[in-house]
Amino acid sequence: MGSVLKFTHAELQQKPRLGSRIPRPVHRVPKMVTDRRIDKLIHLLVKNAMVVVPGPKIASEIGVTRFTVWSWIEKLRSLGLEIRGVPREGYQLLTVPDILAPSLVRADLGDCSIGRTIIHYFRTDSTNAMALKLAAEGAEHGTVVVAEEQTAGRGRLGRTWFSEKGSGIYSSIILRPLLSPAAAPVLTLMAGLAAQKAVISSTGLAVDIRWPNDLLVNGKKVCGILTEMSAELDRLHAVVLGIGINVNHSLMPPELDHLATSLRMEVHRAVSRVQVLVALLREIERHYRLLLKSGNLAITERWEAASSFAHGKRVRVVTPAGEALATTTGVDPSGALKIQHDDGRQESLVAGEVVEVK
Ligand code: BTN
């Protein structure tokens, strides 16, 4: 059960070769081998943080030449890691990097089955797109895809997800529940609940959940979840929980500023992305087990207790059919949001979104 680190950063994909001026074409690089060694390098530096680690020791431990070590160190520096080179002695990591490298995340995951395999990208288009592809190729339950940056992060309702490099957690978790597609909405609520608990335990912030699963801090969004799946009529093949958390953004782009915030902007200090991701994966595992053991109600009741949107909230409801004003009256066991329209009609929402009306 290995962890896989995939660097799509163009430079990292070129295996350094002494004396060669022609970079090796990306498609010919034996990615698996090279990637694991770079992950090992990061792990070794972190394990010996603040100590000068001799170059030859690094080279022999990760099984590459000293030249390759030098070259990878240069590349990691270009990605923001602070590594001091001491001539004829070795390398010293000056600050513990907040990189979602599999070895760093897994070190704190214990026997958690979610995250047993972690696939990491410095840059990808969308971790959900990657996870769906991997799921179709047979990736096991609990496989997690993470990226430092997404170039085409997907949001709900056809929107995009702002995915600034190194600031957020962009993660997709593959689940393989023996359930029917009707279980998808409750899996979505389960993910929101788990993400809420993870953010609270890592920051102490007061976090609300807006149906179906946006996390809000002081009325602004810090986390969004996009659930995608492959299924037959009566059986889910795989569910991908795509979870984006704004962690260390120091400001939001002007067009999002009134809607979104980051954990850092709320707690006024940097927050460890590794720590938040570990908490998230543990909470997903805990809530998923609870769902399988105790059924939908165990999730929907907890969701109702955790969200100010569950009961008595005045909302504008936006669905493909149009917009309407309503008041929320709870969540039903399937995960649908119950609302009472201003004209008295009762409805159970299965899609769309709600916005608080003050
Ligand atoms: C929303 O619109 O609120 C859902 C946003 C989901 C964003 C995450 S980031 C990781 C994963 N990969 C994607 O392309 N989207 C999800």
Can you walk me through this structure?
The protein is an alpha+beta fold and 358 residues long. The chain has nine helices and 16 strands. The strands form three sheets. An eight-stranded mixed β-sheet has the order 1-5-6-7-11-10-9-8, with helices on both faces. A five-stranded antiparallel β-sheet has the order 15-14-13-12-16. A hairpin with a 3-residue loop joins strand 8 and strand 9. It starts with a strand and ends with a strand. The N terminus is likely disordered. The structure holds biotin. Biotin binds next to helix 5, strand 7, strand 10 and strand 11.
Structural class assignment = alpha+beta
Distance between the termini: 50 Å
Treating each run of at least 4 consecutive H or I residues as one helix, how many helices? 9
User: What's the average pLDDT?
Assistant: 88
Small molecules held by this entry: biotin
Q: Determine the fraction of residues in helical runs and give it as a percent range.
A: 25-40%
Element-level helix/strand string = EHEHHEEHEHEEHEEEEHHHEEEEE
Q: Estimate what percentage of residues fall within beta strands.
A: 25-35%
Instruction: Tell me the major beta sheet.
Output: 8 strands, mixed
Shape: elongated
The strand count comes to: 16
Strand order of the largest sheet: 1-5-6-7-11-10-9-8
Radius of gyration of CA atoms, rounded to a whole number: 22 Å
Low-confidence stretches: 1-34
